[in-house]
Amino acid sequence: QVQLVESGGGLVQPGGSLKLSCAASGFTFNNLAMSWYRQAPGKERELVASISRTGGTIKYADSVKGRFIISRDNAKNMMYLQMNSLKPEDTAVYYCKVFLLREYWGQGTQVTVSS
């Protein structure tokens, strides 16, 4: 079955960096686009970045453009989110998502940006 497992979250000071990973299994990874979402306390889940199956098309939310980089390694069935210049407002649970007849989500990884 489809499984997505995020890792790499943690506590970081403002201005710091983190790299999130999403390990995918149960489907043909290189056939599908992938996305990162986040949900802050009391807020709706929002799209952070998306990447096409080949990595040739990438989109970012305006709030993270120039700071975050999404990538994927189809040989390893992995997706990544490099987060730089982190701000307190980036604090959220980060999820990876794939759509295969329906949406599949990972369990999420907590990112906390605080001094």
SSE arrangement:
Blueprint (H helix, E strand, L loop, with lengths): L2 E5 L2 E3 L5 E8 L8 E6 L6 E6 L6 E3 L7 E6 L4 E6 L8 E9 L1 E4 L3 E5 L2
Parallel strand pairs: 2-11
Antiparallel strand pairs: 1-3, 3-8, 4-5, 4-9, 5-6, 7-8, 9-10, 9-11
Q: Radius of gyration in whole Å, from Cα?
A: 13 Å
Would you count the extended β strands for me?
Answer: 11
Count, helices = 0
Strand portion: over 45%
Task: Report the helical percentage.
Answer: under 10%
Structural class: mainly beta
User: pLDDT under 50 segments (min length 5)?
Assistant: none
Compute the average pLDDT: 97
Brief summary of the model shown:
With 115 residues, the chain is an all-beta fold. The chain has strands at residues 3-7, 10-12, 18-25, 34-39, 46-51, 58-60, 68-73, 78-83, 92-100, 102-105, 109-113.
Description:
- With about 120 residues, the chain is mainly beta.
- It has strands at about 5, 10, 20-25, 35-40, 45-50, 60, 70-75, 80-85, 90-100, 100-105, 110-115.
- It is built from no helices and eleven strands.
- A hairpin with a 6-residue loop joins strand 5 (about 45-50) and strand 6 (about 60).
- It is globular.
- The protein starts with a strand and ends with a strand.
- About 30% of the residues are buried.
List keywords for this structure.
mainly beta; four-stranded antiparallel sheet; 0% helix; 115 residues; seven-stranded mixed sheet
